[in-house]
Structure formats: C-alpha cells, structure tokens
Design brief:
The protein is built from four helices and no strands.
Length: 148
C-alpha cells in the first residue's frame, strides 16, 4: 500500500513541490485517488507471517511499480510512467522535470525499493496487491476492459 501520510511527510523533504502545477489540496487529493489504499492491511490480514514491502512515498512523486525506462512502460504514453505528469483524469499535474531531477527521484526512492524487494524475494512467493476504481480512469488505455 501507499500510505498517504508518506506523501504529505516526504514531499517537502525532497522539495519537489515546485515541480507540480496543482495546488497542495489538489495534489493531496490526487495522491489519495492514485493510492492503493489499505492493501497493506488486507495483506497483513490474509498472510500474517508475510513480509510486506510498501512504497515509501506516494506514486505522484514516483511510482515504484512502473518500469524506470519510459520506452518499456505503456502508461508513460499517458503521463503515468515512473514519473507522473498527468492526473488520473488526464489533467497536467507536473512540469517537465530535468533528467537530473528524474535521476535524483529514482535514486532516492525507486532504486532502494527495488533493491529491498529483490533482496527479500529470493526463493519467496511474491503477491502484488492493487486496488482499482469501479470505472476506468481517463488515462487508462482500454476503457472497455472488465474491472478486477
């Protein structure tokens, strides 16, 4: 799960607020909307002895569940690659960031997340939990697929 408190706590730490075009309230709302809320609680209830790995920051800052290379990530075409530029409903939310800033975000959160995940997953069974809205978001490429 992506804990919304991480977003509020961490976004100022890395001083990325100037990258966003949304107001702080709009950004917090997008963070909540885009989050996989309560999946950590569901996982803990279903598998009490499991090691739960969660994102350390909101996916509106960086989405650790996307490919880091936009050419490999289908959602990058819709502004929802590793670094989001559009909201779930297709509104421009972020200025274009420099390669240097992108690399800093990746080094701070993406790479450590994957290092940790790889280290604990050797010989383990991985279960990746997500939540889904009842209807597709505007940025989803296939609006006709049945929802999970």
């Amino acid at each position: 799960m992506e804990n919304p408190a991480h977003f509020c706590m961490e976004i100022n730490t890395i001083e990325v607020m100037n990258q966003f075009l949304l107001s702080p309230n709009e950004l917090a709302e997008e963070a909540m909307t885009s989050a996989d809320l309560f999946t950590d609680i569901l996982a803990e209830a279903a598998w009490p002895s499991a090691r739960i790995i969660t994102a350390a920051v909101s996916r509106v800052v960086i989405d650790v569940e996307r490919y880091s290379n936009d050419s490999e990530e289908i959602m990058a075409k819709y502004g929802r690659g590793m670094i989001y530029s559009f909201t779930h409903n297709g509104k421009l939310m972020r200025k274009e960031i420099s390669t240097s800033d992108r690399n800093l975000l990746q080094a701070k959160w993406y790479d450590p997340h994957w290092t940790k995940l790889r280290s604990v997953s050797k010989g383990a069974t991985l279960i990746d939990l997500h939540s889904y809205p009842p209807v597709p978001w505007d940025v989803e490429p296939n609006q006709l697929l049945e929802r999970p």
